[in-house]
Design goal:
The protein is built from 13 helices and 28 strands. With 575 residues, it is α/β, with parallel strands linked by helices. α7 links the parallel β13 and β14. α5 packs antiparallel against α6 and α7 packs across α11. The relative contact order is 0.08.
Length: 575
């Protein structure tokens, strides 16, 4: 973690256009990207022509320093418009503070955004909320003068049904809000040398966009029809100038990969304060990382036919709900009715939800589905108030378990074919048996590994192969730390069996295991023959695995006379 204070970087980026980059070098919790330690930048944009528009003010983590920086450079009594690419409680908090300084400003958003804002401002009487709803289309624009006539493109998704992009033909800037972002922090404003951002951008997509691949493709079709565009101005990370074409193509390719999955899950939910939606996002992340597709549907904004179609073609379904006044909201009850009348009982089910004081909605969903004869892929997930990192990790693992259960059922129907000569030969490659352990704050995980190989002498380093659906995968990103515990021959069976057994979502992997804490914070197994404290330098996507290259920062032999346990396989198509 950096000790740098949060600040706001202010720079001109085009004619009459300035970016205000609210920066934190420490991790901030945005959605579910808790595995990264790269800080974040919340970008806001000021277009000051004859009239003035402020686009995408940041969340409440930056409210104070953002408004101070804004007031130093601009007279807020001259602010005409505040444009919101999406609405959430964090951004609404900054908006309330901003409107007290600029009560004359009109708030511009989509129709779903206007509904969310009216709810957020329901108890506010001063200042009054002046709204202008933009539905998009060529006939609807906002003329700021001096050639700046802003156009609006709705890009709704289940997670952000109110999403609205803004285009300025005068500067050829496309303000994309959530699209094309990355959670990284630094002095670099634009994306020169952009290949170093590739992994951050992919991780951002996998966490936030992959569960909505169909809607992302629709948004891309709309945005690529806008021309000319010389710069993407996202809400997070560097502005996209040098890799605009490449990143657009990457989004198209990643979306198509998600849509191509032959096994899908219908993920249905509603969310009152964003907490249930965040849980849904974490569950979806766990499903997609296991190679199963997700059709994510926000029931508040979906037609019954859309829900019915998604459930009918899915191999399983998961329903999430907040509890409002002791009940599930009407859209969730409607979705439940559709599920009970559409889904046969061979489909796997799941239930989750958040609540403030009770959790009747979760109990309702659970009892109705159990009475209907459905089997469950995980125990109901009940979360009080806002989810933390541990809760989100639980949700991700629950999603992965759900996906793996569906894939296992599919494999049972398709008998395994005899191994080919090549597969048998590959199986003769041996590897040492190790336990990989990692901990980031309150989140800890471990796995048995045998695909480990020294890769470099100087610095001392090795490669480690990790299946994409492994729970520990999200703790093994560049600059994260872990311990490689090397097992001793003849003493390895106990630890091997322990870490091979299936663990429930967020179950303590170290219960009953003697451990010590390494200098990097990860567990050291007392019964290991040796251990290495390691830092992830890089990782590469390789088919169904990630190959991690790590360097050794410290280590010790605990049993000098012990030989390393080795894993012998007969075929190279499974562990």
């Amino acid at each position: 973690m950096s000790n740098k204070p949060r600040d706001v970087q202010v720079l001109p980026i085009a004619a009459d256009t300035t970016v205000l980059r609210s920066r934190s070098w420490n991790r901030l919790r945005f959605e579910i990207e808790y595995a990264r330690e790269r800080g974040t930048t919340a970008n806001s944009y000021l277009v000051a022509a004859a009239k003035t528009a402020l686009i995408d003010p940041p969340g409440e983590s930056f409210t104070e320093i953002y408004l101070a920086a804004l007031q130093q450079r601009f007279d807020l009594t001259r602010l005409d418009y505040i444009i919101l690419g999406h609405v959430n409680p964090n951004r609404a908090a900054t908006l309330k503070a901003l409107l007290k300084l600029a009560p004359q400003a009109t708030v511009v958003c989509s129709n779903p955004g206007a509904i969310a804002l009216r709810n957020a401002f329901a108890e506010e009487t001063d200042p009054p909320l002046n709204l202008q709803v933009m539905k998009g289309g060529t006939d609807e624009s906002l003329d700021l003068g001096q050639g700046h006539r802003l156009e609006f493109i709705p890009t709704s998704s289940p997670r952000w049904p109110d999403s609205l992009c803004t285009y300025d033909p005068q500067t050829q800037l496309l303000f994309t809000d959530k699209l094309f972002g990355a959670h990284v922090c630094g002095d670099q404003v634009f994306d020169e040398g952009w290949t170093v951002l590739s992994e951050d951008r992919r991780y951002y997509f996998d966490c936030l966009m992959a569960p909505h691949a169909r809607q992302v493709e629709t948004a891309l079709e709309k945005l690529t029809a806008v021309s000319p565009v010389r710069l993407y101005a996202p809400a997070h990370g560097p502005l996209v100038r040098y890799s605009l074409i490449e990143l657009t193509h990457a989004y198209q390719e990643w979306s198509q990969q998600q849509k191509a999955q032959d096994v899908t899950v219908a993920l249905l939910y509603a969310s009152a304060y964003g907490n249930t939606a965040t849980l849904a996002q974490a569950i979806a992340r766990g499903i997609t990382k296991a190679g199963v597709g997700v059709e994510s549907i926000n029931c508040e904004f979906a037609e019954p036919d859309e829900i019915q179609e998604a459930v009918a073609k899915s191999a399983g379904f998961i329903i999430g709900s907040p509890t409002l006044g002791g009940h599930a909201p009407t859209p969730v009850q409607t979705a439940l009715g559709i599920v009970l009348s559409t889904a046969n009982t061979t489909k796997l089910a799941g239930v989750f939800g958040s609540f403030g004081w009770s959790g009747e909605a979760i109990d309702l969903l659970d009892s109705k589905l159990r009475d209907g004869g459905y089997s469950f892929g995980f125990d109901p997930i009940r979360v009080k108030f806002k989810p933390n990192d541990v809760t989100l990790k639980l949700c991700e693992e629950a999603g992965t378990d759900f996906a793996q259960a569906l894939k296992k059922a599919r494999k049972v129907k398709a008998p395994r074919q005899p191994a080919t000569a090549i597969e048998q030969a590959v199986g003769r490659i041996t590897g040492s048996l190790c336990i990989v352990t990692a901990q980031q704050e309150e989140v800890a995980s471990a796995m048995l590994a045998s695909w480990v190989s020294q890769a470099t002498f100087n610095p001392p380093g090795f490669t480690l192969s990790v299946a994409k659906e492994r729970a520990i995968e999200s703790l093994l990103y560049p600059n994260s730390h872990f311990v490689l515990n090397i097992l001793a021959e003849g003493q390895h069976l106990g630890l091997m069996k322990h870490f091979l057994k299936p663990f429930g979502p967020a179950e303590d992997r170290f219960a009953g295991i003697e451990t010590e804490t390494a200098q990097n914070g990860s567990p050291i197994l007392a019964d290991a023959s040796a251990y290495l404290e390691c830092r992830v330098n890089n990782r590469m996507e390789c088919g169904d695995h990630w190959v991690v290259y790590a360097t050794v920062e410290s280590g010790k032999v605990l049993q000098p006379e012990a030989k390393t346990a080795v894993h012998h396989r007969k075929v190279g198509i499974h562990y």
